[in-house]
From TrEMBL:
<dbReference type="InterPro" id="IPR020846">
    <property type="entry name" value="MFS_dom"/>
</dbReference>
<dbReference type="InterPro" id="IPR011701">
    <property type="entry name" value="MFS"/>
</dbReference>
<dbReference type="GO" id="GO:0005886">
    <property type="term" value="C:plasma membrane"/>
</dbReference>
<feature type="transmembrane region" description="Helical">
    <location>
        <begin position="105"/>
        <end position="126"/>
    </location>
</feature>
<dbReference type="InterPro" id="IPR036259">
    <property type="entry name" value="MFS_trans_sf"/>
</dbReference>
<feature type="transmembrane region" description="Helical">
    <location>
        <begin position="80"/>
        <end position="99"/>
    </location>
</feature>
<dbReference type="InterPro" id="IPR004638">
    <property type="entry name" value="EmrB-like"/>
</dbReference>
<keyword id="KW-0472">Membrane</keyword>
<dbReference type="Pfam" id="PF07690">
    <property type="entry name" value="MFS_1"/>
</dbReference>
<feature type="transmembrane region" description="Helical">
    <location>
        <begin position="200"/>
        <end position="220"/>
    </location>
</feature>
<dbReference type="GO" id="GO:0046677">
    <property type="term" value="P:response to antibiotic"/>
</dbReference>
<feature type="transmembrane region" description="Helical">
    <location>
        <begin position="436"/>
        <end position="455"/>
    </location>
</feature>
<feature type="transmembrane region" description="Helical">
    <location>
        <begin position="399"/>
        <end position="416"/>
    </location>
</feature>
<feature type="transmembrane region" description="Helical">
    <location>
        <begin position="138"/>
        <end position="160"/>
    </location>
</feature>
<feature type="transmembrane region" description="Helical">
    <location>
        <begin position="56"/>
        <end position="73"/>
    </location>
</feature>
<feature type="transmembrane region" description="Helical">
    <location>
        <begin position="166"/>
        <end position="188"/>
    </location>
</feature>
<feature type="transmembrane region" description="Helical">
    <location>
        <begin position="12"/>
        <end position="36"/>
    </location>
</feature>
Amino acid sequence: MPDVRLASPQGKWILLTTVLGSSMALLDSTVVNVALPRIGRDLDANLSALQWTVNAYMVTLAGLILLGGALGDRFGRRKVFVVGVVWFAVASLLCGIAPNAGVLIAARALQGVGGALLTPGSLALIQASFHPDDRGRAVGLWSGFGGVGAAVGPFVGGWLVDGPGWRWVFLLNVPLALLCVPVALRHVPESGDQRAHGRFDVLGAVLGALALALVTYALIEASAGGAVVAVSAVAGLAAAVAFVLVERHRPDPMMPTDIFASRQFTAVNLVTLCVYAALGGFFFLAVLQFQVVVGYSALAAGTALLPTTVLMLLLSARSGELADRIGPRIPLTVGPLLCAAGMLLMLRVGPGASYPADVLPALLVLGLGMVTLVAPLTATVLGSVSVVRAGLASGINNAAARAAGLMAVAALPLLAGMGEEAYREPAAFDTAFGKAMGWCAGALVAGAVIAAAVVRRPPPDCRRPECLRHGGMTAPPLEGEPVRKKLP
């Protein structure tokens, strides 16, 4: 059994290491959006290049995150976590010195690979290292500090963009890694899963990432038309079908398709797709709306989003407790509807908008909706499968949320009629933003309908979430596998 106590010096070092590692990926997912307008101007990039700046990272992260967790179980969680941190830092350095948009996009894809290695390992190291009596408090501190990092991320990002420049949004990861890696190697015990066996599902991971990349390309470039776009769309769908077939017939699949035999699990993942598509699209476009249309600086745009994260930090645990008492169906129905109302309130945010009268009410309603749904969603995912598959279920749900977000970033500008230079034309962007909010609200309403029709209370003996406070906006918290006694 793991035996490190939280109050010991080693316990504090382990907590510091995991917080630093997860904060690198969490900060990156929230900070980069704030820098997009400045990146576009400095690199003379059009809207599709900005979409790829976000989505190149998400494609590799979503496609490889399940494989990253499996690598940690097999070769050692600390080892894979450290490799992920180093990889992420090197890719961040490449982002920071990128001379043009093409190099930046390629470096962002490499960042996603590093994120897929370090993200699953962060919580897994806590679960595998701490004594069972201290594990719950350690996870609570880890998620709380991570939430604080998510809250200050857009503020720090805005300050860097307005001050030293957008490149420091990426370069900031390098000193964090230089601090994280030596501490991990010195103080974090190695752990793994002695039950892990069989071949890695590399083919499944490649097909999944390829399908996401090709479909994303087709959506982003669809307005230009042409044979290449059509071929990419068809090839992406073919890769998706091949992914499902491979996962169905492999002896050790990355994503066992039989897990979807649970009607509840399938329904909750459909809700996840609807919710995180809307949220991913919103957080991509909102910071552009604040800067391009309302006239905020990068710092003001990043700070404007702070209420949603603060509400998540303060109220997520209580929301989870409420859902335990009344069941998940009501929170998973009401939460998306509140988020949809927040999206529609954003229609009031245009030229000359007042933050207290126009922006803040929309963000408060949106934040309350997120508070209402995120913790119950995680609990329902874990409760819809057997305890031994809870970690796998969480990983699939997390990957689905990230895939939904990247598809939204690719599709929303197309659906809203945004041209390549839209972010340089305030009036045109404002009109398209309003249409995009309508699409986001529609997706949220669809999620609420699915939840109301299908979601039911999980059995009382199911696995419960360990991460009760969550400040991330791009995906639900990633829960690890239950920790068992090591085999002799």
